[in-house]
Specification:
InterPro entries: CheY-like_superfamily, NreC/VraR/RcsB-like_REC, Sig_transdc_resp-reg_C-effctor, Sig_transdc_resp-reg_receiver, Tscrpt_reg_LuxR_C, WalR-like. By secondary structure, the chain is of the alpha/beta class. It has two domains: about 5-140, 3-Layer(aba) Sandwich (Rossmann fold); about 155-215, Winged helix-like DNA-binding domain superfamily/Winged helix DNA-binding domain (Arc Repressor Mutant, subunit A). It is built from ten helices and five strands, in the order βαβαβαβαβαααααα. It has helices at about 10-20, 35-45, 65-70, 95-100, 110-120, 130-140, 160-170, 175-180, 185-200, 205-215, and strands at about 5-10, 30-35, 50-55, 80-85, 105. Strands 2-1-3-4-5 form a five-stranded parallel sheet, sandwiched between helices. α3 links the parallel β3 (about 50-55) and β4. α2 packs parallel to α3, α7 (about 160-170) crosses α9 and α8 crosses α9 (about 185-200). The longest helix is centred in the C-terminal third of the chain and has 15 residues, at about 185-200.
């Protein structure tokens, strides 16, 4: 079955462009559009999409609050949220990730990246682009802990290797890159990542990366 996508952006021209790209793919179906967060909530309830392509800055209700309501405890369906950002202008992207977004994508990303991101998110994975993640978290370093704060007790549940893996996830490394860095197999890395998410009660790699910075385990800008 095709992946059902809802387009949410206050610029009709952008929605039209996204629709043309997505409808050219046999496994993707655009089931609706919305011009603001409130319309997005209505459309999610009515259309039950699999993935919501969500803009951040919109009238009436922004993408952060809409994401929180779509993915929160009272959610009406299984919709995943993929946030769209212009990066240099959107200071609320980290908040959207905290609110429950499964990842983010630059608005000027190539068409094939948009298509792949939707497929990844629909499959229940996190769209965590390594280079963008590092730049994003560094850009908002002022909003995150400096690393001087005490590390939370929950980290004590992790093994030393799991802490290593969490740090590398926070740096935006893929499973293959982590495997190469630690001289282990990708399967081993996937197992470690799964343990980290389970022990810390996190949904995906996006939340893990934000957690690592918020907890002070990783310093913004650190290599």
């Amino acid at each position: 079955m095709a992946i059902r996508v809802l387009l949410v952006d206050d610029q009709p021209l952008l929605r039209t462009g996204f629709r043309m790209i997505l409808e050219a793919e046999q496994d993707l179906a655009v089931v609706g559009e919305a011009g603001d967060g409130l319309q997005a909530l209505e459309q999610v309830r009515a259309l039950q999409p699999d993935v919501v392509l969500m803009d951040i800055r919109m009238p009436r209700m922004d993408g952060v609050e809409a994401t929180r309501q779509i993915t929160g405890p009272a959610k009406d369906g299984p919709a995943k949220v993929l946030v769209l950002t212009t990066f240099d202008l959107d200071e609320y992207v980290v908040e959207a990730l905290r609110a429950g977004a499964s990842g983010f994508l630059l608005k000027d990303a190539p068409a094939h990246e948009l298509v792949q991101a939707i497929r990844v998110v629909a499959a229940g994975e996190a769209m965590l682009a390594p280079s963008i993640t590092r730049r994003l978290l560094d850009k908002y370093a002022g909003h995150l802990p400096s690393g001087e704060e005490a590390v939370p007790d929950t980290l004590d549940t992790l093994t030393d290797r799991e802490v290593e893996v969490l740090k590398l996830v926070a740096r935006g490394l893929s499973n293959a890159e982590i495997a190469a860095d630690l001289f282990v197999s990708e399967t081993t890395v996937k197992t470690h990542v799964g343990h980290v998410l389970t022990k810390l009660g996190l949904r995906d790699r996006v939340q893990a990366a934000v957690y690592a910075y918020e907890s002070g385990l990783v310093r913004p800008g650190a290599q």
